[in-house]
Specification:
47% of the residues lie in helices and 15% in strands. The chain is an alpha/beta fold and 339 residues long.
């Protein structure tokens, strides 16, 4: 199989068991939650209880809204309860959200994320290997752990740690300290090849690895529909989502690689005016086709395979519009057949 395939687990807690069982029955390899309007960790408890083989991940949990110790506890319990199926996907978020929404400190996101992961690993080593907890960093310090506060060792090993990244510095951090990378959906095949992979290699080389030791997971924008009307509605929704991401200054580098830097400036200005619908009109056919797979339903799996085979290890389908579940199930079956 060319890819491992992930689906989304979302909604109110009461809907999680059915959603997780449905993904497993449809042949998905993993199910991901996200930290948007809900906590991303609680649903995974229910998903673990109601599935047998589905890998369970966060895509993402906001690292800097927590401490390495608090997240180490939660991740440890989920790893044990799921019998080793947890993929802990971390994201840095951006400064306004960390400071104004979470009321937590923000500084040097790449360096802080590197230290966050190393601190968590030190905590897990203390619990599971009996190592003395003696982590002293610039941002985090963990030097106290007594038996009363130590969970017992377990046999499942630490969770796989994924980090979401776009820029080169944070991508280098992924290569150095993480097991995988949550590639931001606002990317392109060219950006992954020319920017992401070399940055991963630079980071991985620091610890004797290469980018091939790091699993890449990508939510692929898909524009499709059963008829022209559905396809047009899908294109409108994806244009707006691409425009939303493109308005963020931190993601400008992706556009600049393709010679579209001025598009970011235009979209940023429109976002400050609240012109969210108008922003989608700025994303022309060339930009849409570069960031998204645009095809009829039966052609989507082949298009994903052609664009990303050998480059990405895990895929999910980013469809910010209503798409019949039977269509995405066909995507899964076809991609498995392609492998």
């Amino acid at each position: 199989m060319a890819f491992l395939i992930d689906g989304t687990i979302g909604g109110e807690l009461g809907s999680i068991p059915e959603a997780a069982r449905a993904l497993e029955a449809a042949g998905y390899d993993g199910g991901l939650t996200s930290e948007t309007s809900r906590d991303p960790m609680l649903p995974l408890v229910l998903a673990a209880e109601h599935t047998e083989r589905l890998q369970l991940g966060t895509g993402i949990v906001v690292a800097f809204a927590r401490s390495p110790m608090t997240l180490a506890y939660t991740a440890r319990d989920l790893q044990v309860y799921s019998r080793g199926r947890l993929m802990l996907g971390l994201g840095s978020q951006i400064k306004p959200h960390i400071e104004k929404r979470f009321s937590m400190p923000w500084s040097h996101p790449a360096a802080r994320m590197r230290e966050f992961v190393l601190a968590m690993r030190a905590v897990w080593d203390c619990w599971d290997q009996g190592a003395k907890l003696e982590f002293r960093g610039e941002f985090y310090r963990h030097t106290l752990m007594t038996p009363f506060f130590s969970p017992p060792p377990h046999s499942f090993g630490p969770p796989k740690v994924f980090i979401a990244a776009v820029g080169e510095r944070l991508t280098e951090t992924v290569g150095e300290v993480a097991d995988g990378m949550l590639v931001h959906p606002f990317t392109t095949e060219r950006y992954i090849r020319e920017v992401t992979v070399p940055a991963l290699d630079r980071g991985a080389a620091k610890v004797g690895k290469t980018h091939e030791d790091v699993q890449l997971s990508l939510p692929v924008f898909v524009v499709t529909g059963r008829d022209e009307s559905e396809a047009a509605a899908a294109a409108t929704a994806v244009r707006r989502q691409i425009a939303f991401y493109a308005s963020t200054p931190a993601y400008r580098g992706v556009l600049e690689l393709h010679g579209w830097g001025e598009v970011q400036s235009e979209l940023n200005a429109l976002s400050k005016q609240g012109e969210w619908e108008k922003m989608g009109d700025v994303v022309d056919e060339e930009i849409l086709g570069t960031f998204a797979v645009v095809a009829e339903p039966d052609a989507v799996p082949g298009a994903i395979e052609q664009r990303f085979a050998g480059l990405i290890d895990r895929v999910s389908f980013y469809v910010p519009y209503a798409l019949d579940g039977s269509i995405t199930s066909r995507f899964v079956s076809s991609l498995r057949g392609a492998g």
